[in-house]
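4.2 Preliminary Data

To establish feasibility before requesting continued support, the project team ran the inverse folding procedure on a target of 192 residues. The structure was first converted into the token representation described in Section 3, and no sequence information of any kind was made available to the design step. The complete token record follows.
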């Protein structure tokens, strides 16, 4: 029997590192969509970031756990790290849909507008849309006017606050020895 009441959001990414933008957007989204919980899913190897040298998965997972330890509505899953190899969203969506026995209407995939631009190139994009609600965060400087009309009809655009923080900005600040303590939880800074 399908779970009619539980509402879960999935927030995937490299989280290299997790930052306050991730946490603020997740908090806003959980309240706005009345989600019971949001599961943060760090990717082993994101298909679109295979060319990047990511921080060791163990450290990215630890930073997530540290940053979210006091957030009772947030959970961290290592399902993609255990699966290893390239992390395909469809596999993760189906894993959680089956694990919690959810209907499409109760499973929410949370992605940034920067990811939606390439969504048609993801593995089985239509199957993703058929198995969950795809919810899109606004991102500064991302133009979605060229999106296929059919895709625009299948996703939910969230009027989230624009938060100009990115993991790549934080990595740049770390490498150039600039301050970044206003972008990342203090416990994560201590871990780094």
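Position-by-position output of the design step:
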């Amino acid at each position: 029997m399908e779970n009619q009441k539980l509402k879960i959001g999935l927030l995937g990414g490299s989280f290299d590192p997790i930052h306050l933008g991730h946490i603020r957007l997740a908090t806003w989204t959980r309240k706005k969509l009345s989600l019971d919980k949001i599961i943060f899913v760090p990717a082993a190897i994101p298909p679109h970031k295979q060319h990047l040298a990511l921080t060791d998965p163990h450290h990215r997972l630890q930073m997530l756990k540290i940053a979210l330890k006091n957030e009772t509505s947030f959970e961290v899953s290592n399902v993609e790290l255990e699966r290893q190899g390239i992390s395909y969203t469809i596999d993760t969506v189906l894993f959680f849909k089956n694990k919690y026995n959810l209907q499409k209407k109760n499973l929410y995939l949370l992605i940034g507008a920067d990811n939606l631009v390439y969504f048609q190139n993801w593995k089985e994009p239509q199957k993703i849309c058929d198995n969950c609600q795809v919810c899109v965060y606004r991102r500064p400087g991302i133009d979605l006017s060229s999106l296929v009309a059919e895709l625009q009809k299948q996703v939910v655009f969230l009027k989230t606050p624009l938060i100009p923080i990115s993991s790549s900005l934080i990595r740049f600040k770390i490498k150039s020895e600039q301050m970044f303590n206003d972008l990342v939880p203090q416990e994560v800074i201590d871990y780094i």
